[in-house]
Amino acid sequence: MELNPKAKALAAARKRITELQQQMTDKALKMAAEVEKLLEVATVREAKGFLKVHCGLSSSDLGTYVKFSKTLKGAEDVLARSRIPFSVMKALASADSDTRTEALTTIAGGAHLDTSEIAAIRRRNRTDKMSRAQAAEKDRAAVIAAELRRRAASSSTALDQETDAFLDTVRAFESRFRYFIQSFADAKKEEPETAEEFMADFERIRSAGEHLLETFVEVFGPRHDLAEDLKLSRARYALQRFAEGRFAHDGGWTFEEGIPDPRNLDIIGALLILTSRPRNSLWLRTPKSPRPTDLT
Question: What's the confidence (pLDDT) of residue 73?
Answer without folding.
Answer: 84
